[in-house]
From TrEMBL:
Pfam family, one: Aldedh
Protein EC: 1.2.1.-
Superkingdom of the source species: Bacteria
Primary enzyme class: oxidoreductase
Organism: Actinotalea lenta
Name listed for the protein in its UniProt record: NAD-dependent succinate-semialdehyde dehydrogenase
InterPro entries attached to this UniProt entry: Ald_DH/histidinol_DH (IPR016161), Ald_DH_C (IPR016163), Ald_DH_CS_GLU (IPR029510), Ald_DH_N (IPR016162), Aldehyde_DH_dom (IPR015590), Aldehyde_DH_Superfamily (IPR050740)
Aldehyde dehydrogenase domain boundaries: 23-486
Similarity section: Belongs to the aldehyde dehydrogenase family.
């Protein structure tokens, strides 16, 4: 492993608030620190938006709305296409920031840059495909025209685990649809979103288009900033990605003016391995589904449900794959597992492992905190985890793979669905009939069949049950930012 020095955050990076096309300090003059999770060291100071700054950002978005709505779809499309090109050209810069503030290995940060940029390209292509319908009413006496119009100013609240992709997955369809945005990035990772917003602002400014369509207000007090916006009639849409607990609170807040909402919330993904699976493929998929971002993804495989006849072989192969992982700062050449986001995340993962062990689980690998400066946890494999252990019932959000066995397909489905969450499930089987039964019966918004990765900007991402409302990506993603108007003619 070759250590690499932590690249400094470039001095050119804007760390103020972006409001109405202008970079400015927060009204209070306050700032907050952004930390490198691989060392705990501060890497930047960012303007700390006050509730008044949040309201100013919404006012700017609202002011920009008429002009943006009237901007031809082709022009909105070309803006987004140019933004995609510029992000792609600056991949190394984006990846460096993602690793610096979020901790993931550089290779994963580059992949996030490509994935995040792809939402912008995809929605640049959708901007010109917003359609409506006209038909003769069944009675024949009149016509029915259905139009889709931009919802209006949208508040986008994003999590820290994919600071570029979660921002682009919301901002790109909003802008494509003709909606201005106010982005409230996660406090741990505002830097990547600020760079993204600057790229969008530049492209708009060069074309003399309204720069107020993109506003960014990082804050250390998200509830205080958000609360007045939820009751402000200028806000027409809330799109949130984060924990189910915070999402529930925001839904309650949004109910007051019956805001359009999209909610991408937590998960508890089952990863099913049937007796007829190709076990080597299943382990390859498991590593992707479990270990991306050190297990800190909403689509992370949370419970490995394995047929009893292949559980030992699967556990051995998985443990062998875990042995190949290299834990360290994302900057180090060869690192495959970076730090967790904060010390509290390490404590929480450790407590989940201790709970499983207390209830009789066996630690096959890991279960320790490595002797490193930052916020690390050793990749862990657990066997014999009972269904009521926290590792089975809660979102782990760390590099821990609990293995549970099942006897037959019915039990596998029952265990898979025994959770209030329903974001994604994974299943490895070579039986086509079973694959279709799973597709119809697994309670999840997405299913990876013999694949450990489902996310794709061209496909509808989202959950059912307590995992959320609405879809991001695909043809559906832009619908979240469009209202339907029916005209009887
Ligand atoms: P979080 O809910 O703590 O925070 C998410 C965002 O909400 C952040 O920007 C945060 O500052 C803001 N926030 C926190 N409290 C708020 C409040 N009271 N009012 C307004 N905003 C508030 O979640 P997190 O820790 O950043 O992210 C991890 C969670 O996100 C996990 O549960 C994960 O499953 C989920 N997630 C879901 C998806 C998905 O697409 N379904 C994607 C990524 C992450």
């Amino acid at each position: 492993m070759v250590p690499v020095e932590l690249a400094p955050v470039p001095p050119s990076l804007r760390t103020d608030l972006l409001i109405g096309g202008t970079w400015r300090p927060s009204g209070s003059g306050r700032t907050f620190e952004v930390l490198d999770p691989a060392s705990g060291a501060p890497i930047a100071e960012v303007a700390d938006a006050s509730p008044e700054d949040g309201t100013a950002a919404l006012a700017a978005a609202h002011d920009a709305w008429p002009a943006w709505r009237a901007t031809p779809p082709r022009v909105r499309s070309e803006v987004l296409r140019e933004v995609w090109e510029r992000i792609t050209a600056r991949t190394e810069e984006f990846a460096a920031l993602i690793t610096a503030e979020g901790g993931k290995p550089l290779s994963e940060a580059r992949a996030e840059t490509a994935y995040g940029a792809e939402f912008v390209r995809w929605f640049s292509e959708q901007a010109v495909r917003i359609t409506g319908t006209v038909r003769t009413a069944p009675g024949g006496a009149n016509r029915q025209m259905v139009l889709h119009r931009p919802v209006g100013p949208a508040l986008l609240i994003t999590p820290w685990n994919f600071p570029l992709a979660m921002a682009t997955r919301k901002a790109a369809p909003a802008l494509a649809a003709g909606c201005p945005v106010v982005i409230k990035p996660a406090g741990y990772t505002p830097l990547t979103t600020l760079l993204f917003a600057e790229v969008v602002r530049e492209v708009l400014a060069e074309r003399d288009l309204p720069t107020g369509v993109i506003n960014v207000v990082p804050t250390s007090e998200p509830a205080a900033l958000t609360e007045p916006l939820l009751t402000d009639p200028r806000l027409r849409k809330l799109s949130f990605t984060g924990s189910t607990e915070v999402g529930r609170g925001l839904l309650r807040g949004a109910a007051r003016q019956v805001l359009r909402t999209s909610m991408e919330l937590g998960g508890n993904a089952p990863f099913l391995v049937f007796e007829d699976a190709d076990l080597d493929d299943a382990v390859t998929g498991a590593m992707v589904a479990k270990m991306r971002n050190s297990g800190q993804t909403c689509v992370a495989a949370n419970r490995f449900l394995v047929h009893a006849s292949v559980a030992e072989a699967f556990a051995e192969k998985l443990a062998a794959a875990f042995d190949e992982l290299v834990v360290g700062p994302g900057w180090h050449e060869g690192t495959t597992v970076g730090p967790l986001i904060r010390p509290s995340a390490v404590d929480s993962v450790d407590a989940v492992v201790a709970d499983a062990v207390d209830r009789g689980a066996r630690v096959v690998r890991g279960g320790t905190r490595p002797d490193l400066a930052g916020y690390f946890y050793t990749p862990t494999v657990l066997r014999g985890v009972p269904a009521d252990a926290r590792a089975s019932t809660e979102e782990i959000f760390g590099p821990v793979a609990p293995i549970v066995t099942f006897a037959d397909e019915d039990e596998a489905l029952r265990l898979a669905n025994a959770t209030p969450f329903g974001l994604v499930a994974y299943a490895y089987t070579r039986d086509v009939g079973r694959a279709f039964r799973l597709a119809e019966q697994v309670e999840a918004g997405m299913l990876g069949l013999n694949r450990g990765l489902v996310s794709d900007p061209s496909a509808p991402f989202g959950g059912i049950k307590a995992s959320g409302l609405g879809r991001e990506g695909g043809e559906q993603g832009i619908e979240e930012y469009l209202d339907t108007t029916y005209v009887a003619i």
